[in-house]
């Protein structure tokens, strides 16, 4: 029987971090197995924008790790406020309704800055400042917003390419088309993995096994079972291979499940996107995150969320669910010519999505009817009430400045009019043609429920609360960190933080 120091199940970002950390801390024979074919390497990590949320001390704190270091003149024009550990922890807690496990939150937050440094220096991740996604140019200044400032050059493709180079250099073996079928145990500990390789079931020995096999978001059956009725209609944004296998393996050895099993990360996603898997060329470009600058209406012509409730990266992960629950499971995002230029090119550029233009709201309604809008009169009424509410607010607060980079208080709620469903920030009238609309559906990203782990070592805990010897976990499989909603850019950082811990703890088991 082949014996490894450490076997990692899953070749995504979290699994790659774990394998590299295992080597860094002394493991010699490290193997990653993935059930996907080689052309699907990188799991969901490949599909990301590469956004990493981290504690930081402002612009000059991060300069040493970014590739797109701005010129001195541009540096002078950047506003980037520090993001403290309290900011990061309170964002997770606030969005998770206070339910997140404080030990996991502290571990993520306190190790986030060190993790991005490690990714930059040890893995070679080409970080960049995220000008296109996280900053707006306002009055000649580049203003970052929403606490998140780092992306990766070429997004998830650049992230996974860096991992592949680092894994090769570190001598980590990677087997594709090799699903883990079960965990092998000796006494109370895990001592190996049964894998299907070249059509054969093979038992491999391992001193440590790290679970990094993703959530169950790509299984329509498990989505329907855990997330609820209707979730089979969600479109899978990333890899089709995250079908909950890791949880079945862990359950069979008595692992404890925890967290928000009814919750997931889901976003506004192009309604024309495929249902069962992401697309490896356009990847994250099917995301449609321009709603804070406009409004969203459902098939009945009604708004259904406060599009300006918070910065986009604090609302986008829950609005997919809101769309799924609308009639037909779709919605329309709508803007007028005042803001169209602010929409991100990679999501709304020509040839990226179907854009529906019209010179009047009535014409727009007629065109949207061909895409599923059922109630033209309600749609026009919604726009009418919305515009009136915005105008009343403007009359009452003439001194306010519209600013997409801050929560500007441009709202629909004045002493004259209050909409039953407000738009709390960035509310502008939709009255200047041409109008533009895009049809969106719910894209499911990853699931929140997972395994209970020790926050210090990433060891998997058993139902009785003790550590299962030789078994560790990272990435989407970790439960208890996110509930209901999520601050954008936290998933990759969490995968790195707990992956590093798992790799280090795996190495300790061989000492
Ligand atoms: C479109 C999109 C955009 C995103 N953008 C961002 C972003 O910008 N920033 C951010 O922080 N997060 C983002 N995320 C979330 C992020 O991708 C995840 O948080 C992170 O990649 C999870 O890493 P992971 O290694 O746990 O899972 P994955 O990267 O999905 O890896 C899991 C791997 O396990 C393999 N596997 C499954 N079952 C088995 C089995 N039985 N045997 C062997 N292997 C198995 C799968 O094939 C897969 O390769 C995005 C996700 C998507 C889909």
Automatic annotation (TrEMBL):
A Gene Ontology molecular function term of the record: oxidoreductase activity
Keywords assigned: FAD, Flavoprotein, Oxidoreductase
Cofactor needs: FAD
SUPFAM superfamilies: FAD/NAD(P)-binding domain, Succinate dehydrogenase/fumarate reductase flavoprotein, catalytic domain
Every FAD-dependent oxidoreductase 2 FAD-binding domain range: 5-490
Domain of life according to the entry: Eukaryota
Keyword Oxidoreductase: yes
Gene3D superfamilies: FAD/NAD(P)-binding domain, Succinate dehydrogenase/fumarate reductase flavoprotein, catalytic domain
Protein name per Swiss-Prot or TrEMBL: FAD binding domain containing protein
Organism: Lyophyllum shimeji
Taxonomic placement: Eukaryota, Fungi, Dikarya, Basidiomycota, Agaricomycotina
